[in-house]
## 1
Amino acid sequence: MDSQRRVVSGMRPNGRLHLGHYYGVLKNWVRLQHEYQCFFCIVDWHALTTDAAAGGDISRNAYDMAVDWLAAGVSPSSATLFVQSQVPEHAELHLLLSMICPQSWLERVPSYKDQQLDAQHREHATYGFLGYPLLQAADILAYRAGLVPVGADQLPHIEFARDVARRFNHLYGGEEDFQAKAEAAVRKLGKKSSKLYASLRKSYQEQGDLEALETARALLKDQQTITIGDRERLFGYLEGEGKVLLPEPQALLGDTPKLSGLDGGKMSKSSCNSIFLRDTPDEIEEKIKRMPTDPARVHRHDPGEPSRCPVWQMHLVHSSEDVRQWAEQGCRSAGIGCLECKAPLIEAIRLELAPLQERAQDYEQSPDLVRSILAEGAEQARDEARETLLVVRQAMGLNYR
């Protein structure tokens, strides 16, 4: 199992998905599923951490989310799609990791600190909300995934997951005579590879050469003559620690375009400024026609400044270069009116969403197929998570078989 070839990501089932989700997450997932072994999870337990009374909507929202994923091109033949609560190993790993996670680590997570300062969210002062970063870490570590596609706002959570993995490896990765066993494993690499490994290890430990570290890891991945246990020892020996039982995940930041909502702010359901993936053509037209524009354009002949206009921000994402040039020049010269500027944008979004909506309609008419995809994905995910739990239980002394 190569952790650097595994990707884990998830979404809370909080309602219908919009263009912000499509450009910020789903298009990236569609690409990643053909390059990595991907696990995409509908994190329904996480939805309860901020809204414990949402239970009646969660299953319906989870189903709708699965339809949107499939319609966007996330494929069950290329990735594993599943619902978090259908893989109870997430909960067990969360419990076991809670035994080693200091409470102060959770209280320092920025999202928790920010919520506690906001009186509007004081009802979130629950164990579930405090512990959700650890549950998120368990979601990742259950698959020993090396990569997690996230936005910049989620970087503290990935760092937290790394800290938890590092602490677990420190507490349970050590073994009697580790140094001697690691040196014996180095010799098993063969004369040429062992010499290269030793050189790369020295470069990393003495000079902090990260490229040497990655090269050494790649060297170990290609070795077919050593056992899994020796490989774990050598991964740990690179950094001077014990065996790597839970690989430390890294954030995978994508070059996603900034997508503004209908009011120019961040697109979100709670702000009522979203175009949803399954909005009808008439709904799309109505929403864009009602969009505010540059306030300086009071009259048709008043010139405008595109950078002040939410419509222009959407042109940057959805329109071709020719249309963008036409809209920019027409706005600044007052050569076109705001309704004229919106017309090609409406058409571009309609055309982009049309094939997605056609696929969504097929899945909406086949609910049993969608449920079957999620059930099969849960079984595949459980198989992988069980292997991790076996490693974790044995390391913690909970092996009774």
## 2
Amino acid sequence: MDADQKSYKDVYCSAELTGAIHNELICLSALNIFLSLTAFLGNALTLVGLRKDNSLYPPSKRLFRCLASTDLCIGTIVGPLHVSYWISAVTEHWDICRYLLGATLITANMLCSVSLLTLAAISVDRLLSLLLNLRYKQMVTLNRTHVTVIIFWFVSGVGSIMSLWNELASSWYSYVIIPVCLLTSLYCYSRIFLKLRHLTNQVQKNVHGRVCQTAPFNVARYRKVLYTALWLQIALIFCYSPYIITAPVVYREIQRNRSPSVYLVLQVAITILYWNSSLNPILYYLKIRGVRQAVKDTIRHLLCL
């Protein structure tokens, strides 16, 4: 296994693969520095906004804060590590390049895995909120949510560290966790919209009944949180799709032909993936009024200082 891991690092830290695209890697480095700054600032403000917002049920807020924290870590840790890896390849410091590549792979795999698991958990949370109704607050508690988040970080950490000993096992972990998370979210949102359609039909049939007078307000409030979660899911799919589609083919092609152009395609796909961490704070700001107001107040306070 050590030989396989060494050959992998030798491939991705070699003049044969990166020597012809130095200018492109420098441009990607500049872009990723910008994305790291926007991810850090955006998610730091989002965490402040979520802490001050009272419109979300605490377990739901915990999941959103976990996602924002993960995006913050991607901006402050993974982005700079990846830029450092590119710069070490451009300057041909190959020993440093191999260490930076290993650190980048472990942290990126762990944090992206946590993001996927958290978004899947948010979709399950929204489905339970709709199906359980009054029992939701008894079943979905803050302590249980804390345990769930800890499990996500533990599982993601173990899956990422596996790459140190077995690259194939780590790859299979990615091939399993990504489809499971996406299919879970797809199932939950499908069930949610079918249930909402059923509730809407019931309200229309009983529009003159007193019992249904409060239903539109409750459904409207639920939809606000639902659409926030759904937009975050769409943003993740949009940003992750180029990597998910190209990575299996590109990795094999790089191992076989050492093609710099194919390697560049992979790095562009990874950059688009990192963009998700800068895009999410914009969605929080647009979709959650409490977060938007808290962010405005924080910015005003900072400018006054």
